Amino acid sequence: MFKKIRKAMSQDKNSQAQEDSLKDQVEETLDQAIEDADNNDASAENNDASAEEEQEELSEAERLKLEVQKEKDKFLRLFAEFENYKRRTGKERLELFKTASQEVMQSMLPVLDDFDRALNEIQKTEDKSLLTGVELISNKLRETLRSKGLAEMTVKSGDKFDADLHEAITQIPAPDKKLKGKIVDVVEKGYTLGERIIRYPKVVTGK
Q1: Where is composition skewed (Low complexity) in this entry (predicted)?
Q2: CATH superfamily assigned to domain 151-207
């Protein structure tokens, strides 16, 4: 009888011990689970912080890139404006030189006309030395002006009249049928400076 009671008590103690052991295992499992959850939360927070830092670094790089592009565009615009300014001022300077040269050349044309008239009159005399001297001066002046771009337009009687190249001051009955609509006489010579006509030849045409 006592043996059965002791056996039962011994079984109760074993059951209690098993329950206590199971309880301890459950508590350890719960503690480990809680610890793992805390670690996971901390890791997630660290990952979020790292992602935010990476995002901030990326945003800063993009901002710097945009600023560099903006400065580059500004520089290119300034460079283009400077090139346009340089080209414009160069063209204006060239036009100024041409204009100044043209004014000087135009002021010399009446002097050339006077030389032509003087030579025509001197040729009627017998003073050959005077003719030679005036021709030398005339030729020297013309050669100097020619070196600066002045050229006499070649126009003669019998040439076809061109309103773009000639200035008709009057019309006369053509002395010959071949001269109808053509140049009969050249009253004043024309001159070009480079490719520009600075004085149109004045002519008489036949009708």
Answers
A1: 40-49
A2: Head domain of nucleotide exchange factor GrpE (2.30.22.10)
- 158 within 8 A of 182, measured Cβ to Cβ: yes
With CA atoms as reference, report the closest residue to 95 among 194, 191, 199, 164.
194
* DSSP for 57-118, written as a single string: HHHHHHHHHHHHHHHHHHHHHHHHHHHHHHHHHHHHHHHHHHHHHHHHHHHHHHHHHHHHHH
Angle between helices 2-122 and 128-147 (to 10 degrees): 170
> pTM surpassing 0.70?
no
Cα distances (angstroms) measured from residue 178 to each of 6, 181, 186? 163, 8, 17
Q: Which residues of 76-94 are buried (b: 16+ CB within 10 A; e: fewer)?
A: eeeeeeeeeeeeeeeeeee
- Can you tell me which residue has the tokens 């109808």? 180
- Sequence-distant contacts of 115-124: CB under 8 A, at least 24 apart: 115/141, 116/189
CA–CA separation, 131 and 40 (whole Å): 119
Task: Select, from the ranges 37-41, 131-135, 188-192, the one with the highest average predicted confidence (pLDDT).
Answer: 188-192
